[in-house]
């Protein structure tokens, strides 16, 4: 996919990877703008193409009392404000066909969650909006099988599609990243590595997903070394009190240092 087809994206000629980054969920306007402002400063300085990520609602919760959102249109309007304030593209995930048409009015990229990526109607609904579609690889799917999900978007007359690896289930409560899948998926489309979700520890007895944020740098460095086109990272200035996925998010304070290391690795890789 030609990255320049994404509205407002910058630094595409830098030779860097691109990044989808932001909080797991939109918790309010102030927090979204605060996170976006910090990431924009870092990515502009390092010439990294950047897309702000934030879920306008969370449907895939472990428990019925888990946080699901602040209201669909309220959160989507915040995503639009982030885009307008910093002149950057935005991405959010959708869960129903109706979500596709609604969210497409506010964001530049529609993301299909991993557990829904085989839902043909949902993928087609996203593709038919004309927005870029990011397909999360199902935790239960092989890299090779993602070609069929990509083809559904292409068959809907939309060539703006990418796939994101977010790990594969390893037993009941752990994820692994099979880096052999990166070059496989790159053969048929732009490929992203979701670093933070790959480090989730789902299905915990308490009903709250765990994680291994201490391994974020390890997975990210390996992904860049393997040649991913983009990186996906959820980050927050207070992960311990984030309303969703705090256990596997990167603290915002560590974002700049990690990006500096990844840019240096990418520069080395580009020489080969």
TrEMBL record:
Keywords for the protein's UniProt record, in alphabetical order: Cytoplasm, Transferase
Domain of life: Bacteria
Subcellular location: Cytoplasm
EC number(s) reported in the record: 2.5.1.55
The DAHP synthetase I/KDSA domain, residue ranges: 8-266
Molecular functions per Gene Ontology: 3-deoxy-8-phosphooctulonate synthase activity
Reactions catalysed: D-arabinose 5-phosphate + phosphoenolpyruvate + H2O = 3-deoxy-alpha-D-manno-2-octulosonate-8-phosphate + phosphate
Enzyme class: transferase
GO CC terms: cytoplasm
Family of this protein: Belongs to the KdsA family.
Pathway: Bacterial outer membrane biogenesis; lipopolysaccharide biosynthesis; Carbohydrate biosynthesis; 3-deoxy-D-manno-octulosonate biosynthesis; 3-deoxy-D-manno-octulosonate from D-ribulose 5-phosphate: step 2/3
Name of the protein in question: 3-deoxy-8-phosphooctulonate synthase
GO biological process per UniProt: lipopolysaccharide biosynthetic process
């Amino acid at each position: 996919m030609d990255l320049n087809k994404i509205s407002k994206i910058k630094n595409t000629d830098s030779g860097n990877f691109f990044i989808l980054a932001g909080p797991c969920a939109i918790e309010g306007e102030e927090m979204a703008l605060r996170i976006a402002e910090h990431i924009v400063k870092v990515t502009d300085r390092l010439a990294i193409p950047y897309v702000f990520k934030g879920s306008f609602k969370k449907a895939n919760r472990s428990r019925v009392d888990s946080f699901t959102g602040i209201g669909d249109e309220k959160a989507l309007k915040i995503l639009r404000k982030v885009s307008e304030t910093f002149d950057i593209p935005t991405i959010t995930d959708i869960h129903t066909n109706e979500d596709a048409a609604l969210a497409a009015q506010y964001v530049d990229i529609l993301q299909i969650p991993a557990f829904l990526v085989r839902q043909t109607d949902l993928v087609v609904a996203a593709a038919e909006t004309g927005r870029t579609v990011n397909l999360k690889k199902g935790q239960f799917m092989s890299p090779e099988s993602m070609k069929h999900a990509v083809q559904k978007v292409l068959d809907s007359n939309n060539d703006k599609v990418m796939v994101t690896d977010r790990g594969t289930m390893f037993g009941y409560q752990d994820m692994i990243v099979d880096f052999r899948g990166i070059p496989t998926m790159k053969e048929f489309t732009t490929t992203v590595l979701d670093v933070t979700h790959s480090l989730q520890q789902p299905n915990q007895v308490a009903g709250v997903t765990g994680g291994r944020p201490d391994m974020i740098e390890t997975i990210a460095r390996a992904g860049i070394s393997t040649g991913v086109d983009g990186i996906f990272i959820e980050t927050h200035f207070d992960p311990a009190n984030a309303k969703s996925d705090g256990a596997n998010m990167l603290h915002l304070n560590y974002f700049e240092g990690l990006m500096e290391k990844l840019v240096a690795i990418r520069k080395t890789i580009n020489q080969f």
